[in-house]
C-alpha cells in the first residue's frame, strides 16, 4: 500500500492498453481477514510547499480484509463497485494530518489546518499484466471530496490525482517483497487550494501578502514503497517526492519551496486471522 498524506495521497497519465489477454494467475486460499498492531515513523513537510518538516512516531494498525465488495490491503481501503479484466471502479479514501500554525513560520498567526478525510470513486484501467501477474501496471483516476474532521465538518474541496501505478512482486528476485512505483499529478478545485494556500487579508503581513488561490494543476508526485509480509509480522517503507514548480498556487506566500521529500517506515505484528478463507489471485 502506498501511503499518502493528502495533498495527496496516491500515480497518473496515459499509456496504450497492452497485454490484457494475459492469463489469470492461479487462485489461492487466504484468510478473509488478518489483524495486527505495530508502529510507524514518518517525516513529512507540514503541507505541500512548506519548508518545515514534522516527524511522527505513531501506532500503526495492520488490517487486511478480502471481501467481495469491501477490501483493505496494500493497495488501500476501497469498495469494489465494478471489476473486470480491463477496468475496476473502486471507492477511494485518503487523509491529511493537522498543522499547528504556531509551529510553522509561514502560517504563524493564521488558523490551524485541521485534518481532512477524502473519499470518492476511482476508476482503474489495467494497462498491462505480465503472464504470471507479478508485474501490474494501472492507470488510476481517483476523484475525492475532502472534508475537515476536527471542530466540525467543513467542505475542503475536490481533489483529482490521476496516476500510473506499477506493482512488482519479488523485485530483483527478492522473494516475498512487493515494490510499488507511482508517478502522477495532483489537481484541486479553488476551494481545495484555498484551504491550504489562501491568505485572508485579516492575516496578511508585510512578509505575507493577501492571496487567493485558483483551481487547477497542483503539481506532481512520485512514490516508491517496499513491503513484505513475514510469517508473524509485516514491514514496509516508502519515499515520496513532490514537485510544485508549475502549480497554480506556486506564488502563494505560504509556498516556501517548490519541492519536498517525505518518508516513512513501519513494522506490525500479526495478532490474529480468520479461520474462514477466500480465493484470491496469487
Structural account:
By secondary structure, this protein is an all-beta fold. It has one domain (40-281): Outer membrane phospholipase (ompla), Chain C (Beta Barrel). It is built from one helix and 15 strands, in the order βββββββββββαββββ. The protein has one helix at 190-197, and strands at residues 27-31, 33-45, 53-66, 70-73, 76-83, 87-96, 116-129, 135-148, 154-160, 163-169, 177-188, 216-229, 233-243, 259-273, 277-281. Strands 2, 3, 4, 5, 6, 7, 8, 9, 10, 11, 12, 13 and 14 form a 13-stranded antiparallel sheet that branches. A hairpin with a 5-residue loop joins β7 and β8 (135-148). The protein starts with 26 loop residues before the first strand and ends with a strand. 32% of the residues are buried. Mean pLDDT is 85; it is low at 1-27.
Topology record:
Elements: E1 27-31, E2 33-45, E3 53-66, E4 70-73, E5 76-83, E6 87-96, E7 116-129, E8 135-148, E9 154-160, E10 163-169, E11 177-188, H1 190-197, E12 216-229, E13 233-243, E14 259-273, E15 277-281
Antiparallel strand pairs: 1-15, 2-3, 2-14, 3-4, 4-5, 5-6, 6-7, 7-8, 8-9, 8-10, 9-11, 10-11, 11-12, 12-13, 13-14
